[in-house]
Amino acid sequence: MPAEPPITDPAVAAKCAEPAEFTLGADAHAMLDLLPDGIAVFDQQLRLHFANRVFRERLPTVVSGSAGPAGAGPAAASAEPTSLPASLSTALQRVLEGVPAASALVEQPRPGESSRLIELLVRLFPLGGQRGAMVQARDVTAKVRSERAQRESESLLGAILETCGVGLCMCDHRGRHVTVNRAYCDLFGYRPEELVGRHYTKVLPPEEFEHGQAIFDGYMGGQGPAVLATELRGRRKDGTVLYVELSARVLIREDGRRFLVASMTDITDRKEHTTQLAERADDAQREAQTKSELLLALQERLELIQRQHHQILDLSAPILDIWEGVLAVPLIGSIDQARATTITERLLQAVVRHRAKLVLIDLTSVEELDQASADSVSRLIRALRLLGTRALLTGLRPQVALRLSELALDLKELESLRSLKDGLRRCLGWS
Description:
Blueprint: H1 10-17, H2 26-33, E1 38-42, E2 48-51, H3 53-58, H4 60-63, H5 86-96, E3 101-110, E4 113-127, E5 130-139, H6 141-163, E6 167-171, E7 177-180, H7 182-188, H8 192-195, H9 209-220, E8 228-235, E9 241-252, E10 258-266, H10 268-316, E11 320-323, E12 326-332, H11 337-354, E13 358-365, H12 371-386, E14 390-394, H13 398-405, E15 415-417, H14 420-430
Parallel strand pairs: 12-13, 13-14, 14-15
Antiparallel strand pairs: 1-2, 1-5, 3-4, 4-5, 6-7, 6-10, 8-9, 9-10, 11-12
Helix pairs in contact: 11-12
């Protein structure tokens, strides 16, 4: 291809040496105005050569110095470098110096409204044989504010998690700690770096491994309730054992990964108090059982004594069935009121049971009667008379006879003999 002839006209040569103008047709203008992002072109002197409709709307202060419509040719390149935001000017200079791309964030105030956040992406752009820069402007207000709100929320949540008094942790599907808060570390005496990445069994005693594994496998397998609440033993770094109240649930992320989120509260004092109460209750129960056994033994002893008492009464005042219709009661020892009452009751029952017509009451072994006992004997005799049974006293000592006479009994109606033998003989004669 033949070389182009040199330009000999100085005016033409000077004109050709000037930077080429950036021009767009009307169709290109219309098409660029339809883009959702703002587009602008700057030269090496940071002068604006073109801006589409979206760019002009989002950054009106950048194009406010243009003499005519942006992109209308050289007349549009009238924005002064000093009118550009500092962040945009810095990004443009970096790209024009050779950096492939740069970015900037501009806050664009709006009268009566909240300001907008515009992200500017700057790339190298050939402009008539010179270096130029194309700027792509995107409204990232919602995105930035959302990210900012999320960071603030995460920061707030992090602060809450770190300051709350409940131990919190999150474990992955292999049972390794992913996240732990300060209370969780303080609970078991570890630093965060000593727990993150380590298996949860690090905070359990060996005897709780099986229980803990059953809980973990059940939840990670989707077999547990929505929220778990249980108690188990934990182990501190120094080896001491504590009791914790565990609450846990499964967290499923959007990518399908499952995590176990758990909270733990130290209930050692409460557990020990409950244990002490249970031990006291057991002690009280054992004491009550012991007392019950003692009372039972005492009752059995009293019953034995009572039986022995009755046996003694039977021996000291036996009721003898002599023959049909005749009973004999030899009284032995002293007779107080209580004994007299018992003898009376037993004798009257025997009279009725045997249909006795005659009762021999032998007082040979009775040395004396007090007033109450004499009254009892008197009432016994009267009761026998009411039952139609004759009473025959035998073996009366003088002092006993005197005591009976003081009761104003009709001694003429009272039959008495010297001895039991005489009484038995009298019975033979009666028979």
